[in-house]
Design a protein that fits this description.
153 residues; alpha+beta; Multidrug-efflux Transporter Regulator, Chain: A, Domain 2; 2 domains; three-stranded antiparallel beta sheet; two-stranded antiparallel ribbon; extended; SinI_DNA-bd; Helix-turn-helix domain-containing protein; HTH_17
């Protein structure tokens, strides 16, 4: 992976404003059912270069611009990317030692490269979705109990 998750910079206010406007402009063409979209870009010499983009990539670009427009830093990670334990811990917002415990308990699959553990991005995301689902279920049960007990929530 060319860069770590943690070293992504926040966009400036000017970049956020441009990204917001760009995402709105590009979102208009997403209503089309075409598999591809064509755009004209001008290079530094003013020459027009026509580029064809898959509509799926354009949807991703609109999402990316929307996040930047909201002032968020964005990283693009291939689904099959391998992460270090620190990168995986950062993604889950946990400490590296805690993540290593999860790996050793087989909560998340991993492989060893010499003495280093490597985790697939897709496995980290699957774990996160699984625990988020469990947390939502527990919160729903607590809210239902609070309603039954007329606790005012």
């Amino acid at each position: 992976m060319p860069h770590t998750i943690a070293n992504t910079l926040l966009p400036s206010a000017a970049e956020s404003a441009i990204a917001r406007e760009s995402s709105r402009s590009l979102a208009v063409v997403l209503d089309c059912k075409a598999e591809t979209q064509q755009f004209d870009f001008r290079n530094a010499r003013g020459e027009v270069q026509q580029v064809t983009l898959p509509t799926t990539a354009l949807k991703l670009l609109v999402d990316l611009l929307s996040e930047i427009g909201n002032g968020n830093a964005v990283s693009i990670i291939p689904i099959h990317a391998e992460l270090t334990t620190q990168e995986a811990a950062d993604l889950l917002n946990v400490s590296r030692p805690y993540l290593v415990q999860l790996l050793e308990k087989n909560e998340i699959p991993f492989r060893k490269v010499n003495t280093h553990r490597r985790v697939l991005y897709k496995d980290v995301v699957a774990y996160k979705e699984r625990i988020d689902t469990e947390r939502r279920k527990a919160l729903d049960e607590l809210a239902a109990q609070a309603q039954e007990l007329d606790m005012g929530y």
